[in-house]
Amino acid sequence: MLIDTHVHLNDEQYNDQLDNVINESINYGTICFCVMGCDYESSLKAINIAKKYNGSLINGKQIECFAFVGIYPGEILKNQYSDNPDNIEWIKDLYLNNKDVVKGIGEIGIDLYWDKTYKEEQIAFFKSQLNIASNLNLPVSIHAREATQITLDILKEYKGKVKGVMHCYSGSVEIAKEIEKIGFKLGIGGVLTYKNTKLVDVINELDLSAFVTETDGPYLSPSPFRGKINKPGYIKYVVDKICEIKKLDYDTVEKILENNAREIFNLRRS
To answer: Is residue 270 in a domain?
Structure first.
């Protein structure tokens, strides 16, 4: 079974074709989905999608679909959050009222690629959400762009208290090993299939136990679909590349990656 540990099925690009995307993904072997929230509205939509699909039987396969709730760094300055990092009790409430499908906090983190002017606000909201995750014993899905070292330093403060995935990892072998040491997995997606990616070295150097698979759909489609909408089924192409690099058979890699995802995100086995 393939697990998409980070996908935005709540994105409007999927609105009119979500059933078809799910069906197509099943044909590729992806039958477990972790749908990420970026603010209150998208988190609620992730929950509704999870409730619709989780446990449903489609094409003879039982679907697993879970929601993550949280605030993406690019959303924290919106009016409903203002400048108060404690004004996020709704994250806790969404979890407590939907424990059947909410499995973690995400997508959260720090992004200094577009705008560095509100760095301190991002850090404050990031820590507030990590505190919620720690208090509720929930895993997290981390976004870090042009902020890997800052993010890692903060996560080290929570070592042993919070676990999760460094989403869309594309950094060095050295940083990857540091992330692994604090108990986090590395989310590997379509970037692995791109030419001249550094991820080949990361896959080579680390044990398979360090990784989980993801799409970040509808973004970052793997080759040969680059530039088109990404779909959870395309994880197969990422696993194919991992098999090629590791010189291992598909079934072995698929099983290890599934177990990694279930362990780090506390996903029940269907």
So the answer is: no
CA distances, 256 to each of 102, 208, 216, 249, 263 (Å): 24, 7, 20, 11, 11
Identify whether 216 is part of a domain: yes
Within the chain, strands assigned E span 2-7, 30-35, 57-58, 61-62, 64-69, 102-111, 140-145, 164-166, 184-188, 211-213
Range of the structural domain that residue 58 is part of: 2-265
From residue 225, how far is each of 29, 213, 229 by CA, in Å? 17, 17, 8
Count how many domains the chain has: 1
Note the pLDDT tens digit of each residue in 140-168: 999 999 999 999 999 999 999 999 999 99
Tell whether 241 is covered by a domain: yes
- For residue 212, the cross-strand partners are 187
Give the rounded distance of the alpha carbon of 82 from its chain centre: 26
Per-residue b or e along 137-165, where b marks 16 or more CB atoms closer than 10 Å to that residue's CB: ebbbbbbbbebbebbbebbeebeeebbbb
Mean pLDDT over 113-133 rounds to 93
Q: CATH number for the domain including 245?
A: 3.20.20.140
